[in-house]
Amino acid sequence: MKIIEVLNTLNRRILPAIFTLLAIMLVSGSLNNVMAQNQNSRAIEQVQASVRQQIISQESRRDNQSARRTPTVRFNDDAQTSSTSRTEVQVRGTGIFLSGSNSRNNDQRNNDSRNPNYRNDDARSREFSYEATVNSRSRSRNVSGIRYDWKGDWSGNENNNAGGRDGRNNDRDGRNNDRDGYNGRYGYNDNNRPNGQVTYTGPIMNRNSNKALDVTEQGMQDGANIQQWSYADQPNQNWDVIDVGKGEFAIISRHSGKAITVQGGRDSNGANIIQRAWNNSPQQRWRMEKVSGEYYRIVSVDNGKCLDVTERGKQDGATIQLWNYSNQSNQQWKLRR
Length: 337
Fold this sequence. Notes:
By secondary structure, the chain is of the alpha+beta class. The chain has helices spanning 2-62, 157-160, and strands at 72-75, 80-83, 88-98, 124-135, 143-156, 197-202, 205-206, 212-215, 226-229, 239-245, 248-253, 259-262, 273-276, 286-292, 295-300, 306-309, 320-323, 333-334.
């Protein structure tokens, strides 16, 4: 009898405690799920805001009619998140860019990228994919690695020349309206590119300074100088390395679509390095020759000299030049950060 009484007493005391503990665990799990969902939602919002800002900034600079247009970025409901580390969340998705309507037709009440019924009959549109990473532990929740890529061509009235009777392109001489070919990935026109396979996309880092090849002042024009600068994942610091055959490569800015070029066709030590529209000249073709580990020397097909940071500089803004290879670290480059 005493044993039964003891068991009953234990049941009355222990079972409620067990049920209480289980309830706490269930509630805690639910809270963790809610917190994770909230964190992912915030990461998506931050990435989309950053992508929107970058696309509108790039396209407004490209569009010579931007002063009277209001571009819009609309994101699809397909954003996905994945944890790349304990502190970083990567976001991927797709969206639509609308170049904007003429100001006389621009009703701000309808210009809401969140409205699934958004419609602007006077706008061009183009689909894109995007990705970026959010540092979830940073107070400012920094967004880095922003990238967007166009999918397909433009569609809409402007692209089809709705105002023209014969359906031809608005440009009277048949050329693309886009100045400097700026219309494709990251904004530039993919038509003004060398033929070949892209073997690498991203920064090109100097071994001596750990700084990146950079188009000065984010220049779009022919002749913009190539320098080194601290890497900030900007389009003017990212490059497509394209195999053009025979072991030769073109190095194309993802910002401007122009090629790294020896200025003026010079072949002496100290010749300046610039960007210029691709013309398939020897001054725009390079060999990537491995020197050690992950590092390469980038050698001009035209004269056998290589890309070199002037005076072995480690500071932002140091100019890139041509120089005889002498196995120095300021002449060696890594194809990633």
